[in-house]
Predict the structure.
Amino acid sequence: MIFPLVLSCLSWILIHAQVHDDIVECNEKIINQSQLNAMNINEQETFATTILHEYNLNLTTLAYITSSSEFESQLYLNDTNRRRTMEKYYEVYRNCLKSIATVARRFNKLITNENSSLYWLLQRTQAIGDAGENDPLIKLRLQKLKSHIKEIYHRKFIWNNTKLGIDEAQELLGKLNSPADLLSLWNATYEVAAPMRDYYSTLIAVQHEQAKQNRTNEKSDTPANLEERRIVEQLWQELKPLHELIHAYIRKQIARLYPGLIEFDQPIPVHLTKDLFGLMMTHLERDVLPFSHISGIDLGPAMKRKNFTEEEIFRYADEFFVSLNLTRAPDSFWNLSVFKRIPNHHMACHPTAFDLYKYDDVRIRMCTSITSRDFYIVHHEMGHIQHYLQYHQQPFWFRRSPHGAFSEGIGDAIALATMSPAHLKRIGLLENYKFTKEENIQFLLSQALTRLFLPPYAYALDIWRWSVYNGSIQPFEYNKRYWDLICRYQGMKPGMPRNERYFDAGTKLHVAFDLSYIKYFLAHVFQFQIFDVLCREAGYEGPLHLCDLHGSKAAGRKLKILLGLGSSKSWEDILEEFAGVRTFSAQPCLKYFQPLREYLEELVANDQLQVGWKCQSNRSSRKQFQMNFVGYIVILYSMFYFLLE
Ligand SMILES: *[C@@H]1O[C@H](CO)[C@@H](O)[C@H](O)[C@H]1NC(C)=O
Ligand SMILES: *[C@@H]1O[C@H](CO)[C@@H](O)[C@H](O)[C@H]1NC(C)=O
Ligand SMILES: *[C@@H]1O[C@H](CO)[C@@H](O)[C@H](O)[C@H]1NC(C)=O
Ligand SMILES: *[C@@H]1O[C@H](CO)[C@@H](O)[C@H](O)[C@H]1NC(C)=O
Ligand SMILES: *[C@@H]1O[C@H](CO)[C@@H](O)[C@H](O)[C@H]1NC(C)=O
Ligand SMILES: *[C@@H]1O[C@H](CO)[C@@H](O)[C@H](O)[C@H]1NC(C)=O
Ligand SMILES: *[C@@H]1O[C@H](CO)[C@@H](O)[C@H](O)[C@H]1NC(C)=O
Ligand SMILES: *[C@@H]1O[C@H](CO)[C@@H](O)[C@H](O)[C@H]1NC(C)=O
Ligand SMILES: *[C@@H]1O[C@H](CO)[C@@H](O)[C@H](O)[C@H]1NC(C)=O
Ligand SMILES: *[C@@H]1O[C@H](CO)[C@@H](O)[C@H](O)[C@H]1NC(C)=O
Ligand SMILES: *[C@@H]1O[C@H](CO)[C@@H](O)[C@H](O)[C@H]1NC(C)=O
Ligand SMILES: [Zn+2]
């Protein structure tokens, strides 16, 4: 899912590395530039092809050794020797990327010529992130700061006599019920990130120094980034009315569950969502779904009744891909992946899919539990695995997603298909489902709980990161401005007053690891677009949310286009080949949830649901007055509302 996943693009051990994988060399080839300049385009292409072929082999082996080492060291977080080995491999690997980038730029007749067959390949050799840093001082400072912040993120704390990390706290939060326990654990978890604050502001300052050397990153205001932000804003405007309706509904249900803790015109205290960030509310399902007389779609009890093991959930996902005539995960995947927490072991638990780049070696590391939430996350991670397997034949530089939204959206689209009531019924996890209107509304609400709260969170989080980077949010106001954005976009608030001693954004892995998050926003929109295309390809015509793709070879063929091309073309070109359009659209998402929207709009029309929330604002006094005025109307309205109830 989502949020899981994370290292999937750049992650790349030693115990499992094959004996003959010695560290290979990877040097900068000496090329006589005047000879090169004398060649015509065809001659340069032939020459470049030979060189890139050699680098492809060496880089693949280096990536294999490095990613094996990364996988291993995440399983033994306390082992500093393993970490040192991994860092050593990373160093060699980064230098290799950098040498290749330099050599590629020598082919000046090809790298700037869109007509050359090597244009995209040479362009992709340039996307090397931090490895391209030339200033050794900046490079060292960045590495130190980043590893320090990561170390803080992985720190453990004690709660109710139990040692927990952030990931484990998330898991436990879903099992608690009393608001006092929820708040207490939420509060203790947010304590972890507080020491990151100063390191983070230093990190931003060092990245600014890099920017002066013309080295931009995903937080910079480059034209491409600004264009992406424009698309995000537009998609958000389309999604907002639907989000507000569902927000209002969930708020009302939580208020019923915990009387007296929520007002009907106020944001939802985030700990009451049983999710650290209020972005995926699967754990609330059994408490907030309507029509409690019908049995519901909580898969946890059904899977437990059927004695599912962790590995079996992965087997179900694999079977699904096989039914579409896609690739079965190889034996090594089942032998080398880690599907559950290893006892008495300080290991990373954040669900992650690894491409090891060689021998078809792909793996997942996840501390799975037998719940609906993890059923979904497993399918998401298996989507990454299928992607790795499909683009395996591409040269190294194309073995990645052309856009973050692709890799993250594909797994989610598969999860949409496998969580369709029709499919769940087929595999025996939803035996009593009758496809009544009430059941469908209940199902769509559960899907909304899983998928519709991430976009506003992701948008708020990255606006915060972009604003910190461009200086419009300063260190002294990090926390306040974070919660302002959370209120504005998500309609949520902290469980208790926060102040600038904390660094609440850092509780999210992607801030602590300095990774972009907006791709999850786009992926959450894109997954419905992918699903819609696949359902049409499969010849399905009913309501989108009931489409089951199981066994459709036609859908499988279509999905291959999206997966197998890797990043060998621009994402717009791949999208066009797949969907016939060149940009992301929110319409399929709105179409999927349409029956739910109609149901909620009816509740609003009957005064059974109050939409919207107020955020505290520190505007000037005149504006403050207007705000209050608006506020009174809302308060009056809500009193009226109580009378009607
Ligand atoms: C690739 O690795 C081989 C074996 O280590 C080495 O002989 C060769 O020089 C390497 N090629 C490059 C371009 O570094
Ligand atoms: C590069 O090639 C040219 C032409 O073949 C030759 O004259 C020159 O000496 C070469 N330069 C180097 C540094 O080898
Ligand atoms: C690429 O090909 C197109 C059409 O064949 C031509 O118009 C264009 O000038 C070419 N571009 C370059 C840089 O050669
Ligand atoms: C705290 O731990 C005790 C003993 O393990 C357990 O019985 C209790 O349920 C826990 N409390 C909460 C709120 O989890
Ligand atoms: C929240 O955490 C702080 C710092 O750990 C602690 O002092 C405070 O008592 C906690 N409050 C609650 C309600 O758990
Ligand atoms: C950065 O780019 C600008 C504009 O392209 C150029 O003027 C400047 O010299 C570059 N600075 C460095 C350090 O390369
Ligand atoms: C699940 O395991 C329990 C205890 O081992 C056994 O009694 C039960 O029959 C099993 N259920 C299924 C569906 O296999
Ligand atoms: C299944 O996939 C194989 C290999 O990609 C292909 O040759 C075959 O035609 C596909 N079968 C169908 C029914 O599409
Ligand atoms: C996976 O494990 C099985 C059983 O332990 C073994 O027979 C098989 O050779 C292994 N396969 C791979 C690819 O490691
Ligand atoms: C890992 O290291 C931390 C601190 O460095 C220590 O508190 C913890 O007990 C260690 N865990 C294990 C399982 O060795
Ligand atoms: C900084 O970035 C934020 C978020 O993209 C934007 O709203 C703001 O206008 C930017 N400020 C400046 C000074 O560029
Ligand atoms: Zn993912």
